């Protein structure tokens, strides 16, 4: 129990904790496993709980007041006799006792009390307490995950790509993605740089990961089923964020024929893709909250990352499989998914699915654009469509399956000659007959 808190007030606090601003966030022991724990809130004002051994806890806003840096990733140090947290972005320090900084900035702090082994925080925000579920990993996720070490003062685009890949918290991953895009677009980040990405992006310890075939997604016919579909889509968007940063870091140094390295425009395009995917994750997470759930409430799979492993040595293969097969397949299933939500009068989900769909068309277009660019600038020049067919047959298991969203694919620049020959011969004949009769 906090010795500074008068014993005669303990009973009074217990009586008002439910009706006033005090919120019980759980057992203190749970927050001693790491120095900083991020808590999500319903109103978006996330909070960080800081633990300083042996029994001291502090609470503050999750974002740095300077530039929005992630305080839960900060270091804890004794600075001038005061325990302080240091923002990982620009090195600004803030005292844990009052939130003050030598820079003159002030961090928002919240009063914390420990009563009978539980932590209480004085806040009007409704905090989401971290899950205590154990992690069930599929076989692939039990492998050792290599981690690239990025110097704290490194500030190239590839350095940040690796940092984001190594960020386990999806909400932190989203925040970093948006911030890096803002800095890249403004010219604050100037160099593309070079960095080695981890073999697999980091994930939260309490995320339950199953083999892809064991995930039951449902058909959106009930509220629980709609939540399952949205949760599955949020998982895909999280992997899509990582795939975008991985393609930036992994292929930054490749040479293209006589033209040399990839142009800066390539990196700008995929920074935008990453930011779009982060936006999609936020939209889906917000809708899950509105439906009484949250990301991480259900099991997920890492099947999409298998394609990253299959294409880690070839940018052409990565563009073909991830952006021109998987993302194009997302266009195909959109009308069906949206119609199922519409039948349940879930207009909010229908609207956000439409936002995602329009962005995904541009992502397929980005894959097409740079696949074509590399083929045409290679030495010798490659014929784009036959090369695409070759790579899909090598790297993708099975045939492409109808129905195809021909309008969406066409908008992205993908005409039928790109994908129809990759169907089963019997299905290709059926499509051909329909085309003849139309």
Automatic annotation (TrEMBL):
<keyword id="KW-0001">2Fe-2S</keyword>
<dbReference type="InterPro" id="IPR054716">
    <property type="entry name" value="Sol_Rieske_ferrdox_dom"/>
</dbReference>
<keyword id="KW-0408">Iron</keyword>
<keyword id="KW-0479">Metal-binding</keyword>
<dbReference type="InterPro" id="IPR009078">
    <property type="entry name" value="Ferritin-like_SF"/>
</dbReference>
<dbReference type="InterPro" id="IPR036922">
    <property type="entry name" value="Rieske_2Fe-2S_sf"/>
</dbReference>
<dbReference type="InterPro" id="IPR007402">
    <property type="entry name" value="DUF455"/>
</dbReference>
<dbReference type="Pfam" id="PF22543">
    <property type="entry name" value="Rieske_4"/>
</dbReference>
<dbReference type="Pfam" id="PF04305">
    <property type="entry name" value="DUF455"/>
</dbReference>
<dbReference type="InterPro" id="IPR017941">
    <property type="entry name" value="Rieske_2Fe-2S"/>
</dbReference>
<dbReference type="GO" id="GO:0046872">
    <property type="term" value="F:metal ion binding"/>
</dbReference>
<dbReference type="GO" id="GO:0051537">
    <property type="term" value="F:2 iron, 2 sulfur cluster binding"/>
</dbReference>
<keyword id="KW-0411">Iron-sulfur</keyword>
<feature type="domain" description="Rieske">
    <location>
        <begin position="22"/>
        <end position="121"/>
    </location>
</feature>
<protein>
    <submittedName>
        <fullName>Rieske domain-containing protein</fullName>
    </submittedName>
</protein>
């Amino acid at each position: 129990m906090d010795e500074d808190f008068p014993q005669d007030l303990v009973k009074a606090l217990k009586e008002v904790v439910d009706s006033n601003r005090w919120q019980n966030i759980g057992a203190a022991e749970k927050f001693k496993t790491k120095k900083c724990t991020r808590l999500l809130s319903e109103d978006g004002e996330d909070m960080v709980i800081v633990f300083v051994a042996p029994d001291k806890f502090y609470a503050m806003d999750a974002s740095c007041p300077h530039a929005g840096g992630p305080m839960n990733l900060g270091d804890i140090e004794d600075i001038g006799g005061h325990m302080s947290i240091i923002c990982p972005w620009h090195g600004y320090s803030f005292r844990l006792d009052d939130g003050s900084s030598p820079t003159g900035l002030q961090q928002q702090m919240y009063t914390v009390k420990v009563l009978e082994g539980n932590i209480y925080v004085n806040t009007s925000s409704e905090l989401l307490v971290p899950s205590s579920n154990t992690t069930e990993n599929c076989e692939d996720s039990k492998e050792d995950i290599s981690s690239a070490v990025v110097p704290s003062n490194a500030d190239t685009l590839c350095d940040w790509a690796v940092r984001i890949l190594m960020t386990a918290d999806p909400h932190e991953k989203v925040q970093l993605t948006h911030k890096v895009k803002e800095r890249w677009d403004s010219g604050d980040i100037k160099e593309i740089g070079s960095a080695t990405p981890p073999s697999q992006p980091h994930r939260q310890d309490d995320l339950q990961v199953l083999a892809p075939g064991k995930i039951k997604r449902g058909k959106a016919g009930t509220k629980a089923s709609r939540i399952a579909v949205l949760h599955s889509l949020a998982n895909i968007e999280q992997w899509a964020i990582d795939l975008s940063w991985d393609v930036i870091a992994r292929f930054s140094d490749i040479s293209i024929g006589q033209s040399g390295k990839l142009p800066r425009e390539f990196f700008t395009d995929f920074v935008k893709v990453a930011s779009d995917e982060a936006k999609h994750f936020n939209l889906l997470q917000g809708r899950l909250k509105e439906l009484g759930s949250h990301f991480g409430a259900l099991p997920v799979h890492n099947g999409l990352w298998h394609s990253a492993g299959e294409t880690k040595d070839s940018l052409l293969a990565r563009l073909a499989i991830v952006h021109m097969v998987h993302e194009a397949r997302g266009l195909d299933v959109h009308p069906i998914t949206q119609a199922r939500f519409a039948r349940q009068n879930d207009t909010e989900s229908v609207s956000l699915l439409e936002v995602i769909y329009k962005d995904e068309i541009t992502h397929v277009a980005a894959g097409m654009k740079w696949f074509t660019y590399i083929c045409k600038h290679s030495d010798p020049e490659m014929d784009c469509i036959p090369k695409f067919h070759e790579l899909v047959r090598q790297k993708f298991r099975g045939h492409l399956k109808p129905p195809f969203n021909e309008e969406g694919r066409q908008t992205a620049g993908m005409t039928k000659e790109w994908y129809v020959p990759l169907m089963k011969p019997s299905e290709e004949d059926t499509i051909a007959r329909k085309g003849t009769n139309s």
